[in-house]
Amino acid sequence: MIVAADVMPVIINTVSVLVGLCIAVGAMLVIASKVFKVETNPLVDEVASLLPGANCGGCGFAGCAACAEAIVLQGAPINSCPVGGYDVAKLIGAVMGQEVTESEKAFPFVRCQGGNVNCTTLYDYHGVENCKTALMLCDSRKGCTYGCLGLGTCVKACQFDALSMGENGFPVVNKALCTSCGNCIASCPNGVLTFARDSEKVHVLCRSHDKGKDVKAVCEVGCIGCKKCEKECPAGAIKVTEFLAEIDQEKCTGCGACAGVCPQKAIELR
Fold first, then answer.
1. What is the Cα–Cα distance from 138 to 122, expressed in whole angstroms?
2. What pLDDT, on a 0 to 100 scale, did the predictor assign at position 257?
3. What value does the mean pLDDT take over residues 229-245?
4. Residue 31's CB: how many other CB atoms inside 10 A?
5. Residues near 108 by beta carbon (within 8 Å), at least 6 away in sequence
6. SS3 state of residue 142
7. What would the pLDDT profile of 5-14 be if each residue is shown by its tens digit?
8. Model confidence at 222: pLDDT above 80
9. What three-state secondary structure class fits 58?
């Protein structure tokens, strides 16, 4: 290709300008990186390196890095990470110069037993297999609007394959895989799932605040607020509020008296 002699100076000048611009921009970036450099606390990095890196949000923060920052700079508990548990908390405690004691682990627990058998089904739902979506579209397919819808939103929310749907339409927890991150609990639109410890022997398997006659019309095993359990409890650990029995686990002795008198079998002794 032959280039006219009068064009060559233009090309050379253009290339020179471009090279000059590249050098100038590069220099500006180097200067900016030094001027605007954010100094990080090395302790934050050390704590972050001890966390499992699951970034599940079970600690209540955006991820493991945010959790580490909260522990070091904001005074968050050193056992904030439910996935790492006691072992990770011990390592963080050593770095932070704090002592940590092992506490009993809690696992998701289903506060409903209506399912596919005991609770009436109003219609067959054919749509997105998501409890929140189903509630937005058409309220609840179950006769009880407080119970488990059985569409498995909690199962999908679990990053550790610790939940599966059982035959009766309830999520089943595999404690060996569960990290107690709480994502399944947060995902349930009806609040059916809650944390419970193995040492807590008595549980109310219902969430309904409807009056007794309304509960019995749709569910064979729902709490009807009859207060028989409240009267029977020798420790005063169970109270009926808005037609629903609630147990104070700190007071409960696990005697099972409440479960024995419940006409609906809505209280479990395990």
1. 11
2. 96
3. 97
4. 10
5. 154, 163, 171, 173, 178, 180, 182, 184, 185, 193, 194, 195, 196
6. strand
7. 566 676 777 7
8. yes
9. coil
